[in-house]
Amino acid sequence: MGGEVRFVHAADLHLGAPFKGVAAEDERVRHALVEAPYRALVAIVELCVREQVDFLVVSGDLYNSAERPVRPQLALADAARTLDEAGIRMFVVHGNHDPASDARVLVGLPGNVHVFAHDRVERVTFERDGEVVCALYGRSFGKREVKENLAAGFAREGDDAIAIGVLHANVGGRRGYDDYAPCSLADLAAAGMDYWALGHVHEPGVVSETPLAVYAGAPQGLDPTQTGERGCYLVSVEPGHAEAAFVPLSGVVWDARSVDVSDLATLDAVEDRVLEACAEVSRTRGRPAIVRVTLTGRGEVHASLAGPEPHTTVLPRLRERAMEWEPWVWLDSLVDRTAPAVDLDSVRSGTDLSSDIVRIADELMASPDDARRLASELFQPLRAKLRQANLDLDPAADAVALVERARDLVLDLVLAEEGK
Amino acid sequence: MRLKRIEAVRFGALEDFTLDGLSDTLTVVHGPNEAGKSTLIALVRSVVYGYRTPSHRDAYIPASGSRLARLIFEDDTGRWAVERRDGTKGGTAVVSALEGPDRPDLLAEISRGVNEEAYRVVFGFGLDEMAKIEEARRDQDSIAGALYSASAGLRVNPDAVRKVLAERRDKLFLSTGDREISKLIKALKETRGRIQEARALGERYEHDRARLGQLENEYAQLDGEVKEAHDAVVRLSSDHQQAVSALERAQQLAKDAENASQERSKLVAEAASIEVDQGVLGAADVIETLLHQRPQAAQAAADAERHRERARAARADFEQSCSSLGLSQDVVRSVAVDGPLAAAVDGALEDIARLESGLEALRREQARAEAEVERADAEHRRALEPLGLGESVTHHDLDRELAEMDAGEQTAAPAGSRDRLLAIAVAVLGAFVFFAGGLWLQETVSLIAGPVLVVLGLLAFAKDLRAGRGAGSGPEAARRRRLLLDARDKLQRYEVARAEAERAKAYVASAETTLVTRREILANALENGGLPRDLDARAASRLLDAIRVAQAHDAEARKAQDEADRVAAVAQAFVEEVRAAAKTAGFESPIDSFQDAASALAVLEKRLHDARERMERVHAIEARIKELDARLDEMRRLREEAEAEARAVFERYERAYASADGLRSLLEEAQRAERALVARREEVAAERSRLEERLRSIASDEQAAEAHFEEAGLVEQIEGSVEQYAVAALGVKLLEMARERYERERQPDVIKAAERIFRDVTGDRYQRVVAPLDAGRIEVLDERAASKDTAKLSKGTAEALYLALRLGLVSRLDGVGPGLPMLIDDVLANFDAERLEGAVKAIAELATKRQVVYFTCHDAIAGMLTEAGPEGTVRVDLPGRI
C-alpha cells in the first residue's frame, strides 16, 4: 500500500427534496430550484471527471426521503454511470433521510458504486494498478433514527497506508440538527482515520484538523436558513497528511439581508435601499440568488410599511426588477420588523389611551406566561384549525414578540388616525 | 374661542338672517315655533362639518340659490369668519381673519376630537337626539368611542382603530367563516392531495415499468408478425399480379397474331395486282440522262432563236444607215473609217476651229483700235481750239511756243526785286526820322520829312509790284502754258492710237489667209478618201461617225448569225438522242423538232415515274410481309412463355387457389390479417406511449415538484397570515383591555358628574347613575337604591338623565372641541317645574365652562335660564316665524 489518493467528498444531496419556506411565484425561480440539487450532482460529477479523482464519497442523505422518488434514483444512476465511464468509483453511506432499511430501489446502480453496510462498519479497499492504495471505512444508517454512536465502531486496521472514514453523524451535538449517530471529536480521533468524510450538517466546514474531519455540507441550500455558498470538498490524502479544499457548486444561493430603514421616510426610499441590497447579493454571489430581506429600525417609514402597499406593490416591483439582472435575484420575502417612530417612554408616562396600551403591553411582555396564556386563549380556534390541517404552527409560540408587534401596530394606527 | 355670530345668507328657510351678540357664557334664544331654531343648530353643524347632500333629509336646500352660511368666532387674539360655500363633498369652508392673524386651520382646532355624529349627539341636539347618547353606548359605535377618547385626551377614536384592526383580523380568520387562512388551508389540502397523487404515481413506477417491458415485447412480437403478414401480402400480391399479367399478355399476343396474319394476306394480294412498265424501266438510264440534259438543250434552242433574231435586226439597221447616208452598202463597207482619213478629218476639225476663233479675236481687236483712234482725234481737236491753233499743227509747233514762254520769264525776275528793296528802305528811313527827329528830338522837319519819306517808299513799292505781274510771268501766260501742255499731250495720244489701229488691221489680214489654206488641205483629204470634197470639217466628221455606226450593224448581223448556227446544232443533237430513247421505250410518235423531243421526253418521264412507284410499292409490300412473318413467330414464342409463367405461378399454390380468382381471394384474406395485426400494434404503441409519458413525468418529478412548491408557498403564506392574524388579534385585545381600563379607572368621573346633575334635576329622587362596563345600558338607582334602566323611566326622567349625561360629559371635555358651543334645542319642554329648575341650574353651571346657546319657544324657560345664567348671559328674542 502507498501513494496519494484524490477524491471528492460530498454529502446531503437530498435529491427530491421539496424546497421549504419559499413562495417562488416566478417560473424561472421554481425551475431553477427544482433543478438545483440535480445540477449540483451533475457539477460534482463534472468536478470528479475534470479533476480525474480516484473516487467520489457521498456521506449520506443522497435522497431526501426514504421513499426515494424515481427522478432522484434516475439522476443518481446517471451520475454513477458517467463516473463509471470515467473509471471513477463511488462510495456511499445512507443517512437518516434515506436509511438503508427503507430503500425502495426502482433504478439499479452500476457496479462502480459501493454502498456501505448498515449493520457494521465495513472496510473497502481502493486499488490502483492492482495495488491497494487506501481503505475506506463506512457504515450506513439502517433506520431513520439512529441514536447509537456509530463512530465508536470505526477502527483503522494496522496495515492501511491511508484510511478514510465515511459517516453520517452529528459530531459534537450540533444544534439545529437531529442528534443522530451522536459522537464526539474524541471518538473520531480514536478511530485513527486520516480523513473523516462526514455528512448530516448542511453547512460545509472543517470539524477537526487532526484528524481532518470535514462536513461537506449540502451542495445546494434547501431552504432560506441555508444561506451562503454550498458545494463539496476536493480532498487529497497521502500517508500522514490530508488536505481538503472547498469547491462551491450550488446553482442557486440563499441569502438573508437585514436592511435598516430607520432613516427613511418613504416607501420609494425603502424600495431603493432594498434594491441596493439585492444588487449587492447579485454582484457578490455571482449566481442566481434567493434573498430574504428584513427591514429593521424605528422610524417614520414604519407606518407606511404596516399597510398593504409593501406587499401588493413594492415587493412585486422589486421582484420584477431584480429578476431582470444577470444573475437574477429572487426577493423571497420582505419582512417588516420596523418599529413606529414614537418615544415609548414618553407615551408610557402619559395618562391617555395610548399610555394604557403601552403599559398593558409592558405588563404582558414582562410576564411571558401571561402573554402566552392570553395568546393561547385568543388563538384557540385558529390553533385548532391549524392542527386539523396538520400544520405544525403555534401562533402563540413567541407571544412576547407578538405583543410587542401588536402594541406597535395599535400605536401605528393611532398615530395614523391622529395624522388625518 | 367663542361663537359670536351666526349668519345665514341662504340656508333652508333662512335667508339673510343673522343671530348676533352671542354670549361667551349662555345665550338664550327665544322665538316661536318655526322661528328657525333647529335650522340654526343645523347651520352651525353644517358650517363646521359640511353640508348634507341635497338628497338628505337635513340638506336645508334654500328656495333659490346655493347654500351659503357663515360663523364668526372670536378670542383674545382676534375675530375670524368661517364661511362654507355650497359644493361637492360638503362644500368648501373658507376661514378669513376679520381681526388678528390668519388661522387657516381654525375649523380643525375648533372641532378637535369631535366628529360630526358626536357633535350631533352631544353638542348640538334637540329632543330627537336625546336618547341617542345611550344608544350610542349600547351600539359601541364611534360616538361613544369618540366621547371616551375625547374625554381621555385622545384625538383619535379608539373604536375606529379597533374597527380597523378587527376587520384586518377577521379578514384573515374567523372560526365560522371562510376567510383567508381557511382558504389557504383548503388550497394546502388540495396541494397535498396532489403530492400524494404524485407519490402514488411513483409507487406505480415499478409496475408501470414492468408493464412497459411487456408492451415492448408485445410490440416487438407484433411488429414481427406484421412484417411477416406484410411480406405474405406482398408476395401474394406480386404472384397474383404476375399471373394475371401473364395471362393477359398471352391473350393479347394471340389477338395480335391474328391481326398480323390477316394483314399479311391482304398485302400478298395487293402485290400481285400491281403491273410494272418494264420497257420504260429498260431505258431509264438514258431517259434520266436526257432529263438531266433537257434544260441545257432547251436553253440552246432558245439561244439559237434569239441569235437569229439579233442578226435580223442588225441587218435591218445597216440597211437603214446606208440608205440615210445615201451611200451604197459596198461604199459604206469600203470606207476606212479608222485610217488616215479619220485622222485628217479630226485634225482639220480642230485646226479650223482654232483658226476661226483666232480670226474672230483679231477682228474684235481691230475694231477696238479704230474706235480709240476716233476718240483720241476728237480730244486733241478740242484741246487745240482754246489755243486758236488749226488741225494741222504738230507737236513740234507746240514745243517751240512753250520754249519761248520759258525764256521770257527768266529775264524779268531779278530787276523787280532790287526796286522793291529800295522802296522799303526809304519807308523805314522816313519812319526813323519821324520817330527819332520828330517825336524824340521834336524836330519839325523831321516830323514832316519822316512821313513824306514813308509815303514815298510805299508808293514805290506798290508800283514795282504791279510792273512784275505783266509780260511772260503773268496769269494769262500761265493759263496758256497749261493749255499748250494739254494739247501737246492729247496730240501725242492720238498719234499712238492711230499707229495701233494700223497694226491690228495687218494681223486680221494674215489670219484670214491661213484659214483658207487649211480648208483646202481638208478638201484634198476627203477627196482622196472617196468622200465629197465640199464637206466642211464638222460635216465630214459626222459622216464618218455615221459610216462607223453602219459598219458596226453589219458586223453585228454577221456575228449573231454565226452564233445562232452554232447553238442550233447542240439542240438538234438532243433531239436525235430523244428520238433514239423513245424508240427504245416503245414510243412511236415522230420526233422532228426540239418541241417534239421535249414532249416525248415528258411522256417518257411520266411513264418512268409511274413504273418506279409501282415497283417501290411492290418492294414495300414484300418487306412488310417479311416483317409480319417475323412478328408472328415472336408473338407465338411470347404467348407460349406467358402461358408458361402463369402456369409456374399457379403451380406454387394448392389446386383450389391455382387460378387468378383463387389467388385474389387468398390475397384478400392475407390483407385482412395484416390490418388486424397493425391495429393491435397501434393499440400497444399508444398504451406504450401513454406509459412512457407517465414514466417520464414520474422520472422528471414535475408534478411532485410543482406541488411541493405550491405547498411551500402556501405554508409560507399561511405562516405570514397567521402571524398577521396574531398581531391584529392581539392588537384588538390590547385596545379592548385599554378601553376597559379606561372605563374602569376614568369613566366614573363622567358618571359622577352626570349623577350629581341628575340628582339635582330630580330633586334627589334618583341618587345614582350606573354604566356597567360589560353592558351597553345605563341604569339609575332611586332613593331606595332600586335599580331602573332607562326603558322603565318616565319620558321626562329619561330625558333628564340624558341631559345630565351630556352635561356631565361636556363638563369633562376641557380640551375637546374647544371652540364648539353647546346648542340645545328646547330639551326642557317635557320637564316638570322641579326638574326644570334643576336642569336650568345645571345648564347655567355648565355655561360657566363652555359656551351654551339654548333655543326655546317657551318664554318661561327663557326667563328662567336668563335669570339663572352666569354673568354675561344674553337673551335674544327672535322676531317671529320664518
Helix content of chain B: over 70%
CATH class of the largest domain in chain A equals Alpha Beta
- Number of folding domains of chain A? 3
**Mean of pLDDT of chain A:** 90
Estimated share of beta-strand residues of chain A: 15-25%
C-alpha termini separation of chain B: 30 Å
Largest sheet of chain A: 6 strands, mixed
| Tally of helical segments of chain B | 23
Helix content of chain A: 25-40%
CATH structural architecture of the largest domain in chain A: 4-Layer Sandwich
Count of individual helical segments of chain A: 11
Count of individual beta strands of chain B = 13
Low-confidence stretches of chain B: 138-143
Q: List how many beta strands of chain A DSSP finds.
A: 15
Provide the CATH topology of the largest domain in chain A: Purple Acid Phosphatase, chain A, domain 2
Task: Describe the protein in words.
The complex is a heterodimer of chains A (420) and B (882). Chain A has 420 residues and is of the alpha/beta class. In chain A, α3 links the parallel β7 (163-168) and β8 (195-199). In chain A, the strands form 3 sheets. In chain A, strands 4-3-2-1-11-12 form a 6-stranded mixed beta sheet, with helices on one face. Chain A starts with a strand and ends with a helix. The longest helix of chain A is centred in the first third of the chain and has 25 residues, at 27-51. Chain A folds into 3 domains: 5-248, Metallo-dependent phosphatases (Purple Acid Phosphatase, chain A, domain 2, 4-Layer Sandwich), CATH 3.60.21; 252-341, no CATH class; 345-420, no CATH class. In chain A, α1 packs parallel to α2, α4 runs parallel beside α6 and α8 (353-366) packs antiparallel against α11 (399-419). Chain A has 11 helices and 15 strands. Chain A has helices at 27-51, 70-85, 185-191, 267-285, 302-306, 309-322, 344-348, 353-366, 368-378, 380-388, 399-419, and strands at 5-10, 55-59, 89-93, 113-115, 122-128, 131-138, 163-168, 195-199, 205-208, 212-215, 231-238, 241-248, 253-260, 289-299, 329-340. Chain B has 23 helices and 13 strands. Chain B has helices spanning 37-49, 106-110, 116-123, 132-139, 142-151, 158-172, 180-203, 205-272, 278-282, 284-325, 329-334, 340-384, 395-440, 444-468, 475-528, 537-585, 594-651, 660-700, 702-745, 747-761, 795-812, 833-846, 859-868, and strands at residues 2-11, 14-19, 26-30, 68-75, 78-85, 92-99, 124-126, 766-770, 779-782, 787-789, 822-825, 852-856, 874-877. In chain B, β8 and β9 form a beta hairpin. In chain B, α6 runs antiparallel to α19. The radius of gyration of chain B is 88 Å and the shape is flat. The two termini of chain B are 30 Å apart.
